[in-house]
Design a protein that fits this description.
homodimer; alpha+beta; four-stranded antiparallel beta sheet; three-stranded antiparallel beta sheet; 10 strands; 43% helix; globular; DNA-binding
DNA sequence: CGTAGTGTTGAGTCAAGTCAATGGTTGTGG
DNA sequence: CCACAACCATTGACTTGACTCAACACTACG
């Protein structure tokens, strides 16, 4: 399995809970795909679309979002490299939300039929996809809690913790610090706050010595305290314990 | 397919997007199960559990919930008859949330292995389960929007609309009115509000002629207006259009 | 008929929002 | 290399939707 095959991270993610048979592994890597390079702010999927491809994120970040009647936006999820961005659209007819680029990205477009065929013929892959989808649902449940029942400090601390642990688990973050490519407005849209208030909370977290910010770089000066503020527990991410990298958190 | 087989509603739900082969249908109905009757307030699943069965709701309602550090509770989803309550636990090791009974319920417990075996051997069933899971994720996304970006009036209107349409789609609600078996406190926990505020909002919706309440019975006097207040659109529920009952909404 | 769980109401408070201005950074083109 | 533009971050003053606290009313049920 060559390290620079664009679907390597996807394959790793599919094997997070149980490793696949050799043959299945090869079939995933043999999936037909076409690489695209896209700029920040653009859309990968729009609500109401009837897509024919599944985009797998190779590099960069995207987020899922919905816009409400009064024009405000809610960010629903962050996708990191290796995530299959529109599994929903492979199996449901119409997209129910938008997917927008956070950074410049490389995505691999895989035809809908190729994925469906794998699911039809490879039970282990079908199971792995079910698991992926269930983990995504679990994260969404935690977001409902975050936005519904935590105050601004806890919301922001929590989302910082989540992002760090997920990146770390996929080998994409340095220890106790990472590049957070979100503006404060995007952070606000992810936490159900306003950008003004996000700013105040970030500054207060920094003033209290929990984090340091330099550019978009965030460093955790007191990881334990930040977890406490955000009531963060890794359980809902369903990252297996044998993943030693993630254990450093 | 006998109408009073306890798994009939589950089977219908699995076939919401594509009908299953006859053989698969029979295999679903032949799943081994054990019926249990449980009282309101009890727990079906607790966070941290390692369950061995999948509970399918036959009658009654349950909800998913999580409790935060300061003791407040967030309701994450409502399950109605026909829902497979712990699919997550069939494929992930540990439960990440609690499931609590809203009303008295009858549940059918199906052994974990029986479900997994079906998924391994019946591609059409695996696909149907993926679809179910994706719809559940879509509903969760809408809940994040609801709690993150809508005011109290809209949140409550929205959840009333959702519940009504889902019940209707499964043939469980009368036209433009239904039994809402939730206390105002539970409604508050589902919308990220307090019960006091829920009370005020419900009264104001009633005063404006959008709904009528009698006991726990809710009637929609102005369905269109209620949808507008809640910015409700059925799309995210992914209920196929050919479902004529749901069309009345 | 008492008790426990809900629902209802009012008064006062507060976390977060709004509005509006200022300051910093980055990138671009002259 | 500088000037300008666009975008983002920061700050202060003020407002407000929702919360808190606390009392009281209703209903169901043993």
């Amino acid at each position: 399995m060559s390290q620079d095959h664009p679907l390597t991270l996807l394959l790793e993610q599919l094997q997070l809970h149980a490793s696949l048979p050799d043959e299945d592994r090869q079939l995933v890597l043999d999936l037909p795909y076409r690489l695209r390079r896209l700029d920040p702010g653009g859309y990968l999927v729009r609500e109401g679309d009837v897509p024919t491809h599944c985009a797998v994120l190779v590099t960069g970040y995207v987020y899922r979002q919905k816009v409400t009647g009064n024009g405000s936006r809610q960010i629903l999820a962050l996708c990191i490299p290796g995530d299959a961005v529109d599994l929903q659209n492979m199996f449901l007819k119409v997209s129910d939300h938008n997917v927008q680029l956070l950074t410049q990205c490389t995505v691999a477009d895989i035809p809908r039929e190729a994925i469906q065929h794998l699911v039809q013929t490879r039970p282990a892959i079908a199971t792995a996809i079910i698991e992926l989808t269930l983990v995504e649902a679990s994260i969404l449940r935690e977001w409902v809690v975050n936005v519904g029942r935590r105050d601004a400090r806890a919301r922001i601390a929590h989302i910082l913790c989540e992002f760090a642990v997920r990146l770390e688990a996929r080998g994409l973050a340095a220890n106790h610090g990472f590049e957070l490519p979100m503006t404060q407005e995007q952070l606000a849209d992810a936490t159900g706050l306003t950008s003004v208030h996000v700013n105040r909370v970030l500054k207060s977290l920094e003033a209290e010595g929990l984090i340091t910010r330099k550019r978009r770089q965030v460093h955790f000066d007191d990881w334990r305290a930040l977890q406490d503020v955000g009531e963060f527990s890794r359980r809902y991410l369903h990252i297996p314990d044998h993943d030693t990298l993630a254990q450093t958190y």
